[in-house]
Amino acid sequence: MExxxxxKQGAVEGLWSGDGKTAIFRGIPYAEAxxxxxxxQRPQEKAPWEGVLSCKEFGPRCPQADLASMDFxxxxxxxxxxxxxxxxxxxxxxxxxxxxxxxxGLPVLFWIHGGAFMHGCGSEKEFDGEGFAQKGVILxxxxxxxxxxxxxxxxxxxxxxxxxxxGNYGILDQIFALKWVRxxxxxxxxxxxxxxxxxxxxxxxxxxxxxxxxxxxxMARGAILQSGTGLPPRRSTPTRDQIFETSRRLMAHLKVSxxxxxxxxxxxxxxxxxxxxQEGGGLCWRPYVDGWLLLAQPEDxxxxxxxxxxxxxxxxxxxxxxxxxxxxxxxxxxxxxxxLGRGPSYLYFFDRKLxxxxxxxxxxxxxxxVFETLSRCWxxxxxxxxxxxxxxxxxxxxxxxxxxxxxxxLPQWEAFGEGTREPKVFR
Length: 427
What we know:
Layout: E1 4-6, E2 11-13, E3 15-16, E4 22-29, E5 52-54, H1 71-77, E6 91-97, E7 106-112, H2 130-134, E8 138-142, H3 147-151, H4 169-184, E9 190-200, H5 202-212, E10 222-226, H6 240-254, H7 259-263, H8 267-276, H9 298-303, E11 312-317, H10 325-339, E12 345-350, H11 367-370, H12 383-402, E13 424-426
Parallel strand pairs: 2-5, 7-8, 7-9, 9-10, 10-11, 11-12, 12-13
Antiparallel strand pairs: 1-2, 3-4, 4-6, 6-8
């Protein structure tokens, strides 16, 4: 693999990793900047460019709050420099092995970051693709629109497209990035028919939305769902009326009355308003049932067998959000797949209590292990952490390769229902 690759839109130039084993391409634009008249519009194909585009720096984040100021998670994940905020945020990053060749058919792990649909980006320090590349897997991470930029919806926007729907732009960004990968990944050594979706928290909810949507059917051959989905007793996806009410509060807060005025509102003011109108700290900016991207509640689609029939891994952490609800919901997800005759599915439970404080196996704690980035964290790791990281990264890489986490040098992980209904426990 060279560090200059020709994409559909033009040539991009990346850089080598420190050890020279991985070619890294940062901040590749996969769509036009959603600014001006394109704010609150579906992603648009990037216009071709002349010459070679330098892709050696990560692209901007969608406008969002200062993550470093967050008490716990600021110290854990955001205490180092992150890219600046800018609406021109629809960028992705690719890590591919040095020995990869164009058309080489390598599997691809397509990562969607979390952040409560309010913040986050694909270049956070816990994410890295060098470990996966050394295992023969290409990693792609993406940025997408979050908070009001990604999920504002309004009746006046519905006349701007033939389907008469608005909102859900963040998920449409993700599907558009997935389409870009399918069209271009062969040039980086990948196989467009060997893409596995993977996400955590809001990224996991995003994966669930994608595998529930008719717009993305056939675009991925597997999914890994981390700490964000399952089959809970209550359905929580907002209705059209609910997302419209949140959007109405936003406009009232900004004292604007038209979409044109809102499109002219400075990005900083729009971002601040998006946080200000949240009620009770809940996820009010998020995917909703619009009748086009999502035809019904994702949980209902899952129960009825309307989600994409692909292999899945699913699980959560020991001290995750919602107490034991996620653990119960992920097990119920696998039970439902078994009832439908779908499979295979692989259930896990991450219960390593991280050293250095009493936070335990908190929400997002498994990310350091999956991406083998322990060295970027302040925690006093032990040898068991390094061993656990190698094991988990190996399972994730194998699943991307074959839809099955098992492989040489790893303990056998039985598919759910094939002799066991217990999760694979990581601790």
